[in-house]
Amino acid sequence: MPAFRTALQLMAFSVPAFATLWSYEGSKSQIPMYSEISTKIYDGALWRFETENQDVFQWTLRVAQDYSLDVWRASGDYVDVYTAGDSVIPKALLSVPHTISNLSTTVRTPSRNSYTNAIDRWNLTSLENTTYHAAYHPSWEIDEFMHTLAELYPDEVTVLRLGHTAMGREIYGLQISGDTKASKAKPGFLITGAQHAREWVAISTALYLSHALVSNSSESQSMRGLLDDFDFYVVPSPNPDGYDHTWETDRFWYKNRQVVDPVSPCVGIDTNRNWGYKWKPHSALGNLGKKKKKPVPDDPCSTWYPGHRAFEAPEVNNLANFVSTLNGAGGPHAKIKAFVDLRSYGQMLSTPYSFSCKRMPKDAEDQLEAALGSVQALKVKHGTIFKTGNLCSTLYRAPGNIVDWMYARAGIKYSYAAFLRDTGTYGFSLPAEWIRPVGEETGKMIEYLAKFIAKRQK
């Protein structure tokens, strides 16, 4: 593996002092070439239960949870459930109108046993001609992509080390800037990839956007012009432990891989329910339809387990620390002015709040105006239609959400969750040939949002 050195002088790059910057020494871009590939095939079915009203929705979801079914998505008027292996749908649910899509997902994991030049193999010098965005990639290829991008564009790209995961892996991010001398005065734009491990296209899209931000302005999908107005911070894989698990063991794993109980056979925290704004020891979903005065804390085996306390997950705590060093408690001097959390699936651009359907942000009008323009810009590229609205109304009530914390605690006025393609045909198994189209249309959304905010600040 290449040798690295740590650059200790950080102030010139306008990044927090705890973050570490990487640069290459010696032989560069030597990354594994994979001649051996392990293949796993996941055969299953995606069931969509159409729920005509909230009573049916809550009942359907409660039954699915009581039978420990794998709920992929619950969105008010439908509940998506994935079955594989010995999983069966209880007879009670079959009375709800439903459709079934058969899914066969193949995961081909490359083995690291020889080396080749990353630039030559993927042609990262060109966004249009690269082969990198034609496939999903395991963690080591994601890390090498980020370091190679920093090598190719040393004046624009800096690799950040944000801290370690529950299993000790490093969490990497990118700072992408234009004129570094002017960076301190520029607002920041933060983009995060999949907090939930199985949402692969969110990670791939974060990588595509990073590439587009540094690509030559002559290329048709280049976003380099945005660097005139913003410094971008991109964290493609904020849950690398969980993401690795989806490659190695369970393609549809959801949480991180943290040990949370000395006796429970289950591990993992839902990192998107572990943020410190309106955190609760139970998920709203876990108590749907239960007539009890006091909500019951979630079991560690629950898909939506929020942890024993807020910020218990180191992945969440590290990202919050990073944002806090840039924004403090918010206010006019906060660096980051825009935040987009990339997710899948559902084709929505959602605003705060997630913890309540009754509370509205004081900036709701501006947030929605920017969102409506952004989804229209996205639609122009490939015709993809996105919905807009606050998180609670477009999904369900969920405390401890990252978007709520970024808005209410970090003071990022324009905070959004972007649920990428599709609407349920493939769900989390979106084919790799869709990576580039999703990246292109998401780029148009980010571009509109950045220009909207820049114009408002002038």
- What's the CATH topology label of the largest domain? Aminopeptidase
For CATH, the homologous superfamily of the largest domain is named as Zn peptidases
Helicity, as a percent range: 25-40%
Identify the CATH class of the largest domain.
Alpha Beta
SS element count, helices = 10
Report the sheet-strand fraction: 15-25%
- State the strand order across the main sheet: 1-2-9-10-12-11-13-16-14-15
Largest sheet: 10 strands, mixed
CA distance, first residue to last residue: 46 Å
Summarize the structure.
The chain is α+β, with helices and mostly antiparallel strands.
Any overview of this molecule?
- It is globular and about 60 Å long.
- The chain has helices at residues 54-66, 118-122, 139-152, 200-214, 240-248, 314-327, 364-382, 391-394, 402-408, 435-457; strands at 3-7, 20-25, 30-33, 37-50, 70-74, 78-84, 98-110, 114-117, 157-164, 170-176, 188-192, 231-235, 336-344, 348-351, 387-390, 414-420.
- The chain contains ten helices and 16 strands.
- Strand 14, helix 7 and strand 15 form a beta-alpha-beta unit.
- It folds into two domains: 3-32 and 113-247 and 311-457, Zn peptidases (Aminopeptidase, 3-Layer(aba) Sandwich); 40-110, Alpha-Beta Plaits (2-Layer Sandwich), CATH 3.30.70.
- It is α+β, with helices and mostly antiparallel strands and 458 residues long.
- Mean pLDDT is 88; it is low at 1-35.
- It starts with a strand and ends with a helix.
